[in-house]
Amino acid sequence: MVRSPKRPHPALLVMLLLLAIVAFCFYRGQNLAGHVGGAISIPKIFWLNYAICVFMVVPGFMWRDQRLDPALRFIFGCQFGNWLVRGAVELVLMYGLHAWIPPYGIYHGIFTLVMLMTLRYRYRSVLATASTHVDQNAKRFLFFSMLTSMCEIYFAWHFYMAANFDTRTTWFASGTPAYIYINRVTTVVDFLAYTGLFMTVLRFYRPGALRLRQSQLSP
């Protein structure tokens, strides 16, 4: 397969902006309009927006990016499809059947980690030779998304405990004292996570960005 040298379309930036707007509207709806599921804290709405970006939006664009090695595109295609199914099932269980519980998300998070680790091992020899700037950025992001899955599992379990294992009407961590620990941890992780996401998107549009050129190092 011949890779395309074309620069990526700004659609990713547009999608990230639209998602941020939707997240803001969702936050207002949960906290001001009292929608089903309960209120959601500021750290958690930032995390929700970030998670959708990392699990679905960015992988979807990398899957379609012809500059990437085909093996990387396949891995991101699997990740995108995996989370597309998860999102559809979760929405039905939450808003249709009111039967979603955090352990479902934890099981899916573990499955996702196993899937990505298996794919990385399966294509390890190919990935080792994928050395262009866009490939390097994609490989870093793949590892980054796996760390995000670990954080999501951790957050889901601690939220479930903080909710006393009863999430029939409470689906999100609010700003109440019961969730002070998880909100504090999420705040710290949010800062690190968005920094990493910014660097990934920057390198997606400007391969090799944030690296000093040899000429710049010369006197």
Overview of the structural elements:
- There is one protein chain.
- The protein is an all-alpha fold and 219 residues long.
- The protein has one domain (11-208).
- Helices cover 73% and strands 0% of the residues.
- The chain has helices spanning 11-32, 42-64, 70-96, 102-122, 124-129, 133-162, 180-205, 214-217.
- The longest helix has 30 residues, at 133-162.
- Mean pLDDT is 90; it is low at 212-219.
Helix content: over 70%
Radius of gyration from the alpha-carbon trace, in angstroms: 19 Å
Helix segment count? 8
The fraction of residues assigned to DSSP E strands is under 5%
Assign the structural class, choosing from mainly alpha, mainly beta, alpha/beta, alpha+beta, or little secondary structure.
mainly alpha
| Order of helical and strand elements | HHHHHHHH
Uncertain spans, ≥5 residues at pLDDT below 50? Answer: 212-219
User: What's the total count of β strands?
Assistant: 0
The N- and C-terminal alpha carbons lie at a distance of 41 Å
Tell me the number of structural domains.
1
| Main sheet characteristics | none
Mean pLDDT: 90
Shape label: globular
Quick gist of this model?
Helices cover 73% and strands 0% of the residues.
Describe the secondary-structure layout.
Elements: H1 11-32, H2 42-64, H3 70-96, H4 102-122, H5 124-129, H6 133-162, H7 180-205, H8 214-217
Helix pairs in contact: 1-2, 2-3, 2-6, 2-7, 3-4, 4-6, 6-7
